[in-house]
Amino acid sequence: MFLDTFHLLAANAADAGFLEKLNGRLNLGDIIVTVALFTILLVLLKKYAWGPLMGVMDQRAEMIANEIEQAEKSRVESQQLLEEQRKLLNDARTDAQAIVENAREQGESQREEIVKAARNEVSRLKEEASLEIASEREKAVQAVREEFVSLSVLAASKVLGKEVSEEENRALIEETIAKAGDGQ
Q1: GO MF annotations for this entry (predicted)?
Q2: Which pTM was predicted?
């Protein structure tokens, strides 16, 4: 119907009685009532439907904006925590390497001290052994001298106590040697 009306408007635009013809075809009262009802309907829709609907949409938009803001804050906080964790991990690695290096150095130092103490102990033991060997050698030499002196005294007393023949001299020397062997 509206197309027909527009065709008529285009065809009759040149006519002077265009509005009269249009008014004859259109009912002005119906148009006014329709526009008034449409306006009332728009006001009612705005008050009871559009306003609450826009309020709900605004609340929804605000909620989404808050969630986005919270998500961004959480992301930034997570990034900060991740950086802190990485820093702590790097610090822990550095500390662990320092501890291992320190332990290695202490171990090396202790090893050197132990080797030095062992060498000192070996030197001390060698010196003690040398002194003990020298002392024992002196004691042995002293004992041999004392034995030799006593054998010489024994042999001289026997020789002086009587005159011996060559055969008796030989027997006396063998007896002295045998006694010297028994003394050791």
Answers
A1: proton-transporting ATP synthase activity, rotational mechanism; proton-transporting ATPase activity, rotational mechanism
A2: 0.38
